[in-house]
Amino acid sequence: MAKASKATKYVYLFGNNKADGDGSMKALLGGKGANLAEMTRIGLPVPPGFTITTEVCTYYYANKRTYPKQLQSQMEAGVLNMEKILGKKFGDLDKPLLVAVRSGARDSMPGMMDTILNLGLNDQTVLALVKASKNERFAWDCYRRFIQMYGDVVMGVQKRPDEDHEPFETVIDGLKKELFPKEDNVEDTRIDTLGLKELVRRFKDLVKQRTGKNFPNDPWDQLRGAVGAVFGSWMNDRAIVYRRKYNIPQEWGTAVNVQAMVFGNTGDRSGSGVAFTRDPASGEKVFYGEFLMNAQGEDVVAGVRTPQPVAELKKIMPGAYNELERVRKTLESHFKDMQDFEFTIEEEKLFMLQTRNGKRTGVAAVRIAVEMVTEKLIDWQTAVTRVPAEQLDQVLAPVFDRDTIKKTEVIARGLPAGPGAASGKIYFNAERAVEAAEKREKVLLVRIETSPEDLRGMIAAEGILTARGGVSSHAALVARQMGKVCVCGASALQVDYHAKTLTVGNQTYNEGDWLSIDGTSGEVYAGEVKTAPSEILQVLLDKSLDPKKSPTYLNFAKLMDWCAKATRLQVRTNADSPEQVANAVAFGASGIGLCRTEHMFFEGNRIDAMREMILAETTEERKKALAKLLPYQRDDFAGMFRELDGLPATIRFLDPPLHEFLPHESSLINSLSDNIGVPAAKISKRVAELHEFNPMLGHRGCRLGIVYPEISEMQARAVFEAAAIVQKEGIKVRPEVMIPLVGFPKELQLQIEVVNRVAAEVQKEQKVKLNYLVGTMIEIPRAALVADEIARDAQFFSFGTNDLTQTTLGMSRDDSGSFLPRYQELEIVKQNPFASVDQSGVGKLMQVAVELGQKTRPDIKLGICGEHGGDPSSVKFCHKIGLNYVSCSPFRVPVARLAAAQAAISDTKSAAKKPLKKKK
Ligand code: ADP
Ligand code: MG
Ligand code: MG
């Protein structure tokens, strides 16, 4: 690691409308630190503090968990700055300064890193705080909170695997039971000073008992411990799981913010809250959020007490509310995006503690982007970049069937925290939810409240249901980001972790029973409820909804129009039936990028003709069987050509090894024998002959057509006869015949000869002139390496990135499950290479093939047809290397279109920026 020079600035101050940093410095100051600086600069009321940079985190891990020498003195200067601004002193026995120690990575990681509040308190300073605040209860409340947070985060007093609750919470519950023996759900605020003093004593005992150590007294020891814990938490399990899911590189590190405390827990003229400048679930432009009176921040997100909607503040504290409304407007006009912010009100004065671009559902993202263009806050290009391509899927997510739901009884209501409809078997802990999901059960994770430990279970579940917590609780935040259906704070639910039951009124549900939740309305239903397609599907595919009546659809359509305006890369679809084509075209596909003809052989009794063909012993017999298949294929192609109405269709010739079409069980062999009149013994013999040790690398792809040219002949005839028929109906037809698994130029030449000969025959027979192309897939490394030779014959290349990944990595996709997850954990691979193109390996081969291909044939058409065609980062890569189109499954088409448009817009934006940056 680079040695830092003496002059290195590790600590950035903010306070009093001045800041060393600003909002653009997220890499160095983390998201929270950069925006604290930015808010300070624009005059918002931010308590003073300082940010320790992410470079210190990097240093810390590169140097055996130690700090650069200059850090201590720079921190002292930072503390001094706060002391000056506030007229208080850290550790003082008169006016003690208390601080919050807050983590903050570049991207927000909800719940992943922990915050410590009220640091600086000890048995002496707490008395000073009593004196200074003239509020004994408040001071002791701060102290018990501090011990609780510090004990948890720094000293590691946490829930053990056999415990369902945090140990500190268990102590609180115990005390409440003693103080209020007859009551349930007693709020913390009812514990009086004496009770709080007792809690402090019990907390310290708990710390001592669990760690063997005394709670630290010296404020500077506390501060150093807290800073170390924040850096340490960058490598905790939760953080690692989260980073893996969202592909956040470990190198980024986290910053630490040390900030003067403001107090939301001084009484009922104070409180703490979280708000969004617009509704993050629906996108509607309303002030949305919640707050708790007499509380410190973590209470709101922890979901321990259910907070009130922010609108209620209007009545309780009109002054603070008006100030909040003003801040809401300032934030949007300054940051030009929906903001998610945290605030505290101390004695009716508002303080801003955080702001960031708010996480939102896919539905909300689309709505906010489109409406902000209408409001002239942003231009349409920016709007396109505002919707994360992965999230567009959510707009297409199912809803409950309208008629069924009317007849289904609502058993409970909670807050609509993550839209969509989900049905599943209920599980009460993350581990069992994951196990069930692995057995392919549909799972609903049901918890009293969720915490970051539940993340794995939340990932595995169809939906999440909690009994406590509001729309900014952990469950809600994470669900929204993952696009999970979520209902929070359904307080009628009585969850008993121990008995594994859920009780509502006098009904009890056991683990494994079905429930359904609607994360758009917040309703909970008993049993499994049928789902219906989203409004967009209802408009586009079912045509059962009038587009004018669906604002969701109209916003989506607007966004897609902008995408069309911006994009260079076309999006085609992988489809092998007219219905799939129709769906994809409705979503804006510009043709078929991959029609897998073998899928057509499985339908109805075609499979028998196919098997007859495979079992044939002579060319004559084989041709006879193929003749039976011809009309089926021809009809299928004709149906697709009609649906395409002039759009191109890439048709791949037979690809899988033949044994995949044959039955392997004796009962099935017998029935095939009856159907086609071939003795069972003969079938068994042929099945055995066709067995391959490594079918992925065996007799498949063009190797079939090379050995049995009559197969390619039949397929070519089906394509061209269908083309002739449809063209005569007055519909333009553009077939593109694609030969799979080519590695040697001669393979392609031999197949092209067959295709061209049949095309000539059909054109002559039918007296038509057909426009068609013949090209190849590039899916084995050899093809990429000799692409210049192959391009002499190929009119187009389509990258078959599934096989290209398998053959380049020498890794079978179907067998990778046993080691790939570990590879991802160890970051040997950053992403699953079968989901997202391995850009530096497979991607490099693609680039080589593009360059070589264009050298021979400058206008060669280039596309991709692997699963990667629907993955946004792969789509962006395809744009970058200059492909003409990507192809993906019909329902991924909108996602790919959005990613393609975003790639084009980011090109134009960086081109526009270049002249300014030239200095470098
Ligand atoms: P997270 O990243 O988990 O949101 P934060 O650092 O934002 O963690 O802190 C969590 C909560 O602690 C916030 O909701 C905020 O209300 C409260 N908090 C943070 N800093 C301060 C502060 N300086 N004064 C009072 N409360 C604070
Ligand atoms: Mg937190
Ligand atoms: Mg926060």
Describe the structure.
- Helix 4 (125-133) packs antiparallel against helix 5 and helix 14 (380-386) packs across helix 21 (551-566).
- The mean pLDDT is 92.
- A hairpin with a 2-residue loop joins strand 12 (339-346) and strand 13 (349-357).
- The protein has an eight-stranded mixed sheet with strand order 15-25-24-17-18-19-20-16. An eight-stranded parallel β-barrel has the order 27-28-29-30-31-32-33-34, surrounded by seven helices.
- It has 920 residues and is of the alpha/beta class.
- The two termini are 24 Å apart.
- It binds adenosine-5'-diphosphate and magnesium ion (2 copies).
- One magnesium ion (MG) binds next to loops.
Could you name the ranges where pLDDT drops below 50 across 5 or more consecutive residues? none
State the strand order across the main sheet.
Answer: 15-25-24-17-18-19-20-16
Mean pLDDT: 92
Largest sheet: 8 strands, mixed
Q: Assess the beta-strand content as a share of residues.
A: 15-25%
Summarize this, please?
The protein has 920 residues and is of the alpha/beta class. 45% of the residues lie in helices and 17% in strands. The strands form seven sheets. An eight-stranded mixed sheet has the order 15-25-24-17-18-19-20-16.
Key descriptive features of the protein:
alpha/beta; binds adenosine-5'-diphosphate; elongated; binds magnesium ion; 8-stranded mixed beta sheet; 45% helix
What topology does this entry show?
Layout (H helix, E strand, L loop, with lengths): L10 E5 L2 E2 L6 H16 L7 E4 L1 H9 L8 H16 L2 E2 L5 E2 L1 E7 L10 E4 L5 H9 L2 H18 L13 H13 L13 H19 L7 H15 L3 H10 L7 E7 L10 E6 L11 E6 L4 H5 L5 E2 L3 H4 L1 H18 L3 E8 L2 E9 L4 H13 L5 H7 L5 H4 L3 E2 L1 H5 L3 E4 L1 E4 L2 E7 L2 H9 L4 E5 L7 H6 L2 E4 L7 H9 L2 E4 L5 E3 L4 E4 L2 E4 L3 E5 L4 E4 L4 E2 L2 H6 L10 H16 L3 E5 L3 H9 L5 E5 L9 H10 L3 H26 L3 E5 L13 H11 L3 H11 L11 H6 L1 H20 L5 E6 L5 H22 L6 E6 L2 H5 L1 H4 L5 E4 L1 H9 L10 H6 L16 H15 L4 E4 L7 H9 L4 E4 L4 H25 L3
Parallel strand pairs: 4-5, 17-18, 18-19, 19-20, 27-28, 27-34, 28-29, 29-30, 30-31, 31-32, 32-33, 33-34
Antiparallel strand pairs: 1-2, 1-3, 3-8, 6-7, 6-8, 9-10, 9-12, 10-11, 12-13, 14-26, 15-25, 16-20, 17-24, 21-22, 22-23, 24-25
The structure holds adenosine-5'-diphosphate (ADP) and magnesium ion (MG) (2 copies).
